[in-house]
Write a structure and sequence with these properties.
Blueprint (H helix, E strand, L loop, with lengths): L3 E3 L3 H11 L5 H19 L5 E7 L4 E7 L5 E6 L2 H11 L4 E2 L1 E6 L6 E7 L8 E5 L2 E2 L3 H12 L4 E6 L1 E3 H10 L5 E3 L2 E2 L1 E2 L5 E2 L5 H6 L3
Parallel strand pairs: 1-12, 4-5, 4-6, 4-8, 8-10, 9-11, 10-12, 11-13
Antiparallel strand pairs: 2-3, 6-7, 14-15
Helix pairs in contact: 1-2, 2-3
Length: about 210
């Protein structure tokens, strides 16, 4: 699928299997979401630009690469995206955080906004939107719509698992936003859940069902 990168690394796929397993405990699920997000962060940041800077090692002076420009912004879609953002912060602790509060109306399956807060200079930063599930795509599209309204131009989307419908819908609405995921499942059920999927990531992370 154009613009969608499936991260097939064995560690990522192993952890996805743990997340899919209904018998995984809340603690295990939460831990593995965080670990998988860290691994996905390696992939989504693979091509960030760098500058050479002059430093002094204990042995000699040398020119070494450093990420160029302003700090990254991780933009978790609340609430389930928070655990993924925490995993990415383990790798990039200096990143800024934008919070995007959206929920999916159970009848229309459309996204409804209840909170939105980003750094003021988001237009000058690389933005990585994170949400465990890309199901219908409506929530992801709404989140990226709002980020673009605030001036964001360099946006990437990362999820643990996508449905083909959601990935195609996001790419159609925002063809400039590439997607990284551990897998793409083919179906959605009548309630908009990915099949076979892994259930409701928010409920499984926070033990609310």
């Amino acid at each position: 699928m154009d613009g969608v990168t499936i991260v097939s690394h064995p560690l990522v796929q192993h952890k996805l299997t743990i997340l899919r397993d209904r018998d995984s405990s809340i603690q295990l699920f939460r831990t593995v979401v965080r670990e998988t997000a860290t691994l996905l962060c390696y992939e989504v940041t693979r091509d960030l630009p760098t500058d050479l800077v002059r430093i002094e090692t204990p042995i000699a002076v040398t020119d070494a690469p450093r990420i160029a420009g302003k700090k990254l912004v991780f933009a978790p879609i609340l609430r389930a995206g928070l655990a993924m953002a925490e995993g990415m912060l383990d790798l990039v602790p200096s990143a800024r955080i934008a919070h995007i509060g959206l929920y999916r109306d159970p009848l229309s399956l459309q996204a409804v906004e209840y909170y939105f807060k980003t750094p003021d200079d988001i237009s000058e930063r690389h933005v990585i939107v994170v949400d465990p599930m890309l199901a219908t795509g409506h929530t992801a599209v709404a989140a990226i719509d709002r980020l673009k309204e605030c001036g964001a131009t360099d946006i990437r989307f990362v999820c643990l698992l996508a449905a083909r419908t959601g990935a195609e819908g996001l790419r159609a609405a925002h063809p400039d936003v590439p997607v990284w995921t551990a897998a793409v499942d083919d179906e959605l059920d009548d309630h908009g859940y990915i099949v076979p999927g892994l259930g409701d990531a928010g409920d499984r992370t926070y033990g609310t069902r």
